[in-house]
Amino acid sequence: MNYLPLPQQFDQNEWFIIISIILSYTFIYFLPHRFPTSISILVMFFSVFVARVVDELLAGPKVDFYDVIDSGKYELFDIISYMMYAPFAYLLVYFFDKFQLRGLLLFFYIVAFSLFGWGFEWISEHFHLFTYNEWKFSYSLAVYLIIQPITLLFFILISNSHKKCINK
């Protein structure tokens, strides 16, 4: 059986991943409960799935715009790093739902949350989570501006489906 290899050297990027995961999951754990657990899990899995697909499209061997973690080869912490995306998606939909954002406020919210994600990527880059080959950091903002509304649409769809199932 083939296992994902451990990092050749356990350094700052692995520690950054571990600390980010612990802090972000702890933060969302202590937030007041807003959604059914099934919706929370689906939103979090959706964000991991989207991150994985985007990385495969942009950082895969055929394109290789950037590398995740230490090299272009898959290792255990590449998979673990995807867990960092879930709390951000949860917070995105949490505050969207809490404040019932619509219209221009929703637009500014998406821009602000995209800037927040972009800022976190900037910090991540300093801990060598990403090594840009053909990719420029500025491109990432456009990706966030596309993915945030898609995540919100997914949340709206599953929330509406859940309400229909409950009201039957």
UniProtKB/TrEMBL annotation:
Annotated TM spans: 15-32, 39-59, 79-96, 103-120, 140-158
Keywords: Membrane, Transmembrane, Transmembrane helix
Top-rank taxon, per record: Bacteria
Protein name (Swiss-Prot/TrEMBL): Uncharacterized protein
Species assigned in the record: Lottiidibacillus patelloidae
